[in-house]
C-alpha cells in the first residue's frame, strides 16, 4: 500500500474509534439536545457522520475501477449536498446509536477498501470541489484530491466539535480534549478549510 495512503487510513481509523466511544457514552437526553447555531440535534450530527461515507463510496470506488452500492437515500437531481444530508438524517430519526454505528461501519469499510488502492497519481490530481460552498455563497475551487481526503479523514472530530457546543460538560473530559487537540488540518487545502468539511 502507498505509505501516503496508509497515513490517511490511520487518521480515518483513529478518529472513528474515538467518535464511536463518545457516541456510546451519550445519554438519551444528550442525544436530543439541539446544537447551538444549528437546527440539528446531537443525534442528527451522529446520523450525518454515520451516513455520509455511503454517499462518497461510489465515487471513490469508481476512481479505482470498482463499483459500490449507491446510498439508500436518493441522490437529488440537481445534486445538493445539504438536501441529501437532510434527507439521510431525517430517514434515520428512529434508529438507535448501535444501528447507526453499524451502518457507519459498513460504509467505512467500503470507503477504506477504495482508499487503500489510491496511488500518488490519485492523491496529486486537482479536482473542482464544491462541498457546502453553495450554502455559504462561496464558488467551487480547485483543490488537490489528497488534501481533500485529509479533510474527509478529520470529518469525525470536525463535527464532534459541533456536538460539543451542545454538550460543554463533555468537552472538559481529558480524553476528548487530548483527542481534539491532536487533530491537525495542516494538510487540508484552504479551499476546503474555509468552509464546513
Automatic annotation (TrEMBL):
It comes from the Bacteria. InterPro entries: DinB-like, DinB/YfiT-like. Residues 12-162 form the DinB-like domain. Keywords: Coiled coil. Pfam families: DinB_2 (PF12867). SUPFAM superfamilies: DinB/YfiT-like putative metalloenzymes. The keyword Ligase does not apply. Residues 90-117 form a coiled coil. Gene3D superfamilies: dinb family like domain. This is DinB family protein.
Amino acid at each position: 500500500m502507498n505509505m501516503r495512503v496508509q497515513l490517511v487510513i490511520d487518521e480515518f481509523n483513529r478518529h472513528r474509534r474515538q467518535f464511536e466511544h463518545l457516541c456510546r457514552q451519550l445519554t438519551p437526553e444528550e442525544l436530543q439536545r439541539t446544537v447551538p447555531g444549528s437546527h440539528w440535534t446531537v443525534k442528527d450530527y451522529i446520523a450525518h457522520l454515520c451516513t455520509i461515507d455511503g454517499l462518497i463510496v461510489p465515487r471513490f470506488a469508481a476512481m479505482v475501477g470498482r463499483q459500490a452500492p449507491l446510498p439508500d437515500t436518493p441522490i437529488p437531481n440537481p445534486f445538493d449536498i445539504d438536501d441529501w444530508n437532510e434527507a439521510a438524517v431525517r430517514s434515520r430519526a428512529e434508529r438507535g446509536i448501535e444501528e447507526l454505528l453499524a451502518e457507519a461501519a459498513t460504509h467505512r469499510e467500503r470507503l477504506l477498501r477504495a482508499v487503500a488502492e489510491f496511488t500518488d497519481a490519485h492523491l496529486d490530481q486537482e479536482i473542482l470541489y464544491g462541498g457546502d460552498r453553495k450554502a455559504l455563497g462561496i464558488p467551487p475551487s480547485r483543490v488537490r484530491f489528497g488534501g481533500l481526503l485529509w479533510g474527509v479523514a478529520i470529518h469525525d472530530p470536525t463535527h464532534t466539535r459541533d456536538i460539543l457546543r451542545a454538550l460543554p460538560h463533555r468537552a472538559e473530559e481529558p480524553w476528548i480534549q487530548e483527542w481534539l487537540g491532536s487533530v491537525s488540518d495542516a494538510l487540508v487545502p484552504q479551499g476546503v478549510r474555509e468552509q464546513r468539511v
